[in-house]
Amino acid sequence: MEEAAIGIWGVPLAIFAGAIRVSTPFIFVSLGETITERSGRINLGLEGTLVFGAMTAYAVAVITGSPTLGVLAAIVAGAIFGLIHGWICKFPKVNDIAIGIAMMQFGLGLAFFLGKSFIQPVAPKLPSISLGGWANSPQIQAALNINVLFFLGAALALFLFWGFKNTRIGLILRVVGDSTDAARAMGIDPDRVRLLATAAGGALAAIGGAYLSLYYPGSWNEGISSGQGLMAVALVIFARWNPIGCFLAALLFGGAGALGPALQSVGVTQGYYLFYAAPYVLTLIILIATSSPTRSLAGAPGALSLTK
Amino acid sequence: MTIEANDPAMAIATEKPASLRPGLEWIARRAEPMVIGLAAILIGLAIFSLFILAVGKSPATLFQLMYTGGFGSWFSVQNSLSRAAPLLLTALCVALPARLGLVIIGGEGAVVLGGVAAAAMALPLAGTAPVFLSLVLMAIAAMVAGGIWIGLAGFLRHYRGVNETISSLLLSYIAIALMNQFVEGPLRDPASLNKPSTKPLPAEYMLGNIPGMDVHWGLVVGALACIISWVLIEATSYGFAARIAGGNVRAAQIQGLAVGKLIVGFTALAGSFAGLAGMIEVAAVQGSANASLAAGYGYTGILVAFLARHNPLAIIPVAILLGGIDASGGLIQRRMGLPDATVLVLQGTLFIVILFCETFYGRFKIFNPDLWKRSR
User: Fold this and answer.
1) Which of A163, A263, B130, B223 is 20 to 30 A from residue B355's alpha carbon, by CA?
2) Enclosing H/E stretch for A130
3) Secondary-structure class of domain A5-289 per CATH
4) Alpha-carbon separation of residue B288 from A11, A93, B111 (angstroms)
5) Interface touch B177/A280, C-beta < 8 Å
6) pLDDT at position B204 over 60
7) Distance between CA atoms of B215 and A71, rounded to whole angstroms?
8) Which segments cross the bilayer (chain B) (predicted)?
9) How far does B150 lie from chain A, in Å, by closest CA?
């Protein structure tokens, strides 16, 4: 009875489930990028960090048999990528956007190089929490099978939102991001703050990568990321550098990404490939709608080169 | 009477008077990018060598294979030149907007759309229109498609304040989805089973090879585009205005320059070059539009443009060099058992080091032209 009743309700359910499944990497990368951008620096290399994190997590999980160790290894690798980016960018005349593109290429290259031998083996997956025990329908049960990292991401968004406002570290980060001179006047070393913020951003982006390879889609291959790391940068602008906004925007992106497969499952195949473009079109429309040529974006850190 | 090119009288006549001959200050000014650039490449190669040593292989063998595979024989030189052709055009897609201070990284989308537009244009023409006319129309269609795509990023930047790096990238992903939709849908050749493509071009409609070489005409088109761009930037008022606008938008507007038109014009021209790369890929290499169009030429073009410091003439040797590195990838894979991503690691390393070395410009007194001014 229940199985038959689901019918057309399968579409919103699939979008809901897809939103939760697809959004997790976006949550982590965008929260990481928020920390980095709040300090006044932009890291476009997170796409490379994400893919390298995915590879590291998968490789370590295959070797040690523990997905948790895989995630920890990815965090370390991501932090190292962030440190390299942050260190290079502190020199004068170095363009942080261009270095980001270079780091992206380097990260992708290194991940493909070192990950070549891990395409075949199968790694143990990250655990998920089942919230659907009350329902009889297997679809609903599957949809409510939610990975621990999703909850961790949600908690992190709340924590960062609170932390930016109410902690000393949050204040230092915001001061550095808004004015390098003001930070120096306060006796803060802006370069060091940005270095650490970039490293934190890289570490979080690598967790997003670990989720990709260890949970969904749950395998390592060279096409594992279709630009999630880069889209997260757009997502941060859309979310106005607000961690809770990032979380909600990531859910929206996930839902848009799940639209195509959901419609296909109920027999709508017309324009299938165009649905793949839905998250990108959505981002672009939102960027156009919220940008202005005359004033800087509301909530944007003053020292951020992206919005100058 | 005809004057022969190697006529000694002509050589003397064209030689500049001694007083105008470049002095040490001229050399000092031009030596800086050469020396710093070369040093950056050497440092990059050294770091890459350490990486190769760390994975237990010999860097010497690798560099030797890279030379053999890229430039060691006439065959490999031709292979490198063929691979350089699209890079010339996609690098221009980055270098031209860079004059205005814009970082455009979505060239891949313009390549893909250019290829689809060229294929769509060719289908009704095939068998009816003369070959040359068809090729010209295909090129125009590709340039219009690519130009609109990147021009849109420029338009959004100036009139809506949307960051061009992000928007061009999003547009690039949208373009790839559009291509998949066209190639799988309305333009699909039913005969293409595993790899969906458009109907193949008839053989006589293909862009042939340069006489005497195994390199298609795309190389000439690309080199010409670089020369035209160089003239545009260095010798026209548009190029001059673009440099002013790139330096300071406010100052340019106060001077009465139409900054908006400049930005849209430059980005559209840049995109049309990348679109042309897509047309060449369809008409000279693939023979139809398919997913192979998104082969990463747009992204390697970013590297070429930055290596050439956005100078269109310098793009020519850099594109050939990277074409050669690209071409040697297969040989390294076969002979040394290294993954094909080795080339990507090398490119990434070089890219990072070269951008890092921007910090050394103006740091060394020896390159200061004033130091070498003659006391005349």
Assistant:
1) B223
2) strand A128-130
3) mainly alpha
4) 36, 44, 14
5) yes
6) yes
7) 48
8) 35-56, 84-102, 109-126, 132-153, 165-183, 215-241, 262-285, 291-308, 313-332, 344-364
9) 14
